[in-house]
Specification:
With about 375 residues, the chain is α/β, with parallel strands linked by helices. It has helices at about 15-25, 30-40, 45-50, 50-55, 60-65, 70-85, 140-155, 165-175, 200-205, 225-235, 250-260, 275-285, 295-300, 305-310, 320-330, 335-340, 345-360; strands at about 90-95, 115-120, 125-130, 155-160, 180-185, 210, 240, 265, 290, 335, 360-365, 370. The strands form 2 sheets. The protein has a 9-stranded mixed β-sheet with strand order 1-2-6-5-4-3-7-8-9, with helices on both faces. It has a 3-stranded antiparallel β-sheet with strand order 10-12-11. The N and C termini lie far apart (about 50 Å).
């Protein structure tokens, strides 16, 4: 699927230049580029193929564009991208690279090349998308942040789109845990939108990862954001919707997630709230109603990537685990009460409860209650 070369990174420039030429060729989208890569294996082989050979996998116009000499504008874009990726923290990821998002590469329209800024070690692991309204309520932002922190505490990266409201709150919560957060943007990776999230974007680029399929310098064009949403859901094991109006763009992400075979979850709200209408609509259509981070972790735990990310229960002699089990032995307790009594970090508490639940040592009851199982 990609060129391989064990020589030092500096010699990879011609290889990356060929990949950039492929994805930057006008009129050649991800579906066509992937079909060509599946057939010819490398961009270099694509550009060496005949027009007739290319026509078996591309239109006449696309074949002509691929075989046309590289003009000044295309060469300038290639040079700019190579210079950008040579800077600390910047990366160009090919679809076959080890750090390319594991779930995303399975999609027919996966970007052959991604621009990444920050921690690419987060990308192959377990991830959950959290999306919702830009005009979120205070409670909605707090909920998104708390869920994100708990999931990140369990080692799951939080994916969102860097928008105001729920997206920003989810990123903030993700940054507070080891799973951190991934911002998939609808601009070039060298642009920040919206400007109000400038400081957050810089923190994500340092402690998380900013990801884009769009060429450097791409402005915030309206048509790019719906396309971007397929990446948010495509690289995630599931999508959690927190506060969404009946015609929210978050419902588009949920619909795409369904088409991709991803799980969709929604947090319910008041029947009088316009920002709960979209979540209720999703639940009526089959999305799973979620009331706590632990419940969500259990629902996600069947996914191999998530199961690998979850910590095993602490050793039997662990004071922390002993305190948790002793507290649970007093009778059914709510998760919030457990956090107060054990003084455990919410993310670690959620992860340990899930691990204990999967081991059959703890039972989850309705209303967010937990009790110890004595066998």
């Amino acid at each position: 699927m990609q060129d391989t070369d064990p020589t030092p990174a500096v010699s990879q420039a011609p290889v990356l230049a060929a990949w950039l030429r492929l994805v930057l060729t006008p009129g050649v989208g991800p579906v066509t580029a992937n079909a060509l890569l599946d057939r010819f294996k490398t961009p270099k082989s694509i550009f060496s193929a005949s027009h007739a050979a290319l026509r078996k996998h591309a239109s006449d116009a696309q074949a002509r564009a691929l075989l046309a000499p590289v003009d000044g504008a295309l060469q300038a874009a290639i040079d700019a991208a190579l210079a950008w990726q040579s800077e600390p923290g910047n990366h160009l990821l090919r679809r076959g690279d080890a750090t390319y998002p594991a779930l995303l590469r399975t999609l027919r329209d996966a970007p052959p090349l991604l621009y990444a800024k920050g921690r690419t070690d987060l990308l192959p692991g377990a991830a959950l998308a959290i999306v919702g309204s830009r005009n979120a309520t205070v409670q909605g932002r707090a909920t998104a942040s708390a869920f994100a922190e708990a999931l990140s505490g369990a080692g799951i990266s939080i994916v969102s789109g860097l928008a105001l409201g729920i997206d920003a709150a989810a990123h903030e919560g993700g940054l507070r845990g080891p799973g951190s957060t991934i911002a998939v943007v609808g601009t070039g990776a060298d642009r920040i939108y919206p400007r109000r999230n400038r400081d957050l974007a810089h923190r994500i680029a340092s402690d998380g990862c900013v990801l884009s399929e769009y060429p450097l310098g791409t402005p915030p064009l309206a048509e790019n954001f719906p396309k971007r949403n397929r990446l948010i859901s495509g690289m995630s094991c599931g999508v959690l919707v927190v506060e969404a109006a009946a015609k929210s763009g978050s419902l588009i992400t949920a619909e795409v997630a369904n088409d991709q075979g991803r799980d969709v979850f929604a947090i319910p709200g008041s029947i009088h709230s316009l920002l709960s209408a979209g979540c209720h609509k999703l639940i009526q259509s089959g999305a799973r109603l979620i009331a706590s981070p632990g419940e969500l972790l259990v629902a996600l735990s069947r996914a191999p990537l998530v199961r690998a990310a979850l910590p095993a229960p602490a050793p039997a002699e662990s004071d922390e685990l002993a305190r948790l089990l002793e507290t649970l032995g007093q009778g059914p307790l709510h998760g919030d009460t457990l956090a107060e009594l054990t003084t455990m970090h919410p993310g670690n508490l959620s992860a340990q409860l899930v691990a204990l639940e999967l081991a059959g040592k703890v039972e989850r009851l309705p209303g967010g209650l937990f009790q110890r199982v004595n066998r």
